[in-house]
Amino acid sequence: MKHANGDTPGPARTGQDPDLLRRLLRAKDRMDAASHEDWPVSRLAQVSHVSEAHFARCFKDAFGVPPHRYLLTRRIERARALLRDTELPILDIALRTGWNSLGTFGRTFRDITGESPSEIRAREQAAREAARRMPACYASAAHRPALTIAVSEKRRREADATKTAPSKPEVT
């Protein structure tokens, strides 16, 4: 379906100005580096040197999601890592990842992941505990490459190397 101006809607429009894309990437990189900070569209537009409306529209065209959704995703990714790798209280994790209230953090986290922060932490801890109880020989075997795949791949490569181009029949 085409818009009145002839553009087709979609997450990645071709033909965007490369200079604009670089500026959008600069704003995206700033969000990645400091996702715990407030990043209103006005601030991001200043980083990109475009108007707020133009920034929001171009960001979504370039990356497939609006800037606010992208920022929420980055915050949730960081929160999941902290839940998995630390014993910090959930309130501290919420504050470190940019939320001002535990309720907003919990609701947003559940909306995006389908689980509460405490459910994710409990599942990750149970998996870590199960891995600790597993005998080392089983863990090694689980991470060992499958030899049948390696042998098959080696044979496939050897077969490809020995194949010759079909010869053309002689014309008399």
Sheet having the most strands: none
Q: Outline, from the CA principal axes?
A: flat
Mean pLDDT: 82
Question: Count the strands?
Answer: 0
What does this entry look like structurally?
This protein is an all-alpha fold. The chain contains nine helices and no strands. The longest helix has 19 residues, at 67-85. It is flat, with a radius of gyration of 25 Å. It starts with 17 loop residues before the first helix and ends in a 10-residue tail after the last helix.
Quickly list its features.
172 residues, mainly alpha, flat, disordered N terminus
Give the helix/strand layout.
Blueprint: H1 18-33, H2 41-48, H3 52-63, H4 67-85, H5 90-96, H6 102-113, H7 117-133, H8 136-143, H9 147-162
Helix pairs in contact: 1-2, 2-3, 4-7
Compose a concise summary of this entry.
This protein has 172 residues and is mostly helical. It is 67% helix and 0% strand.
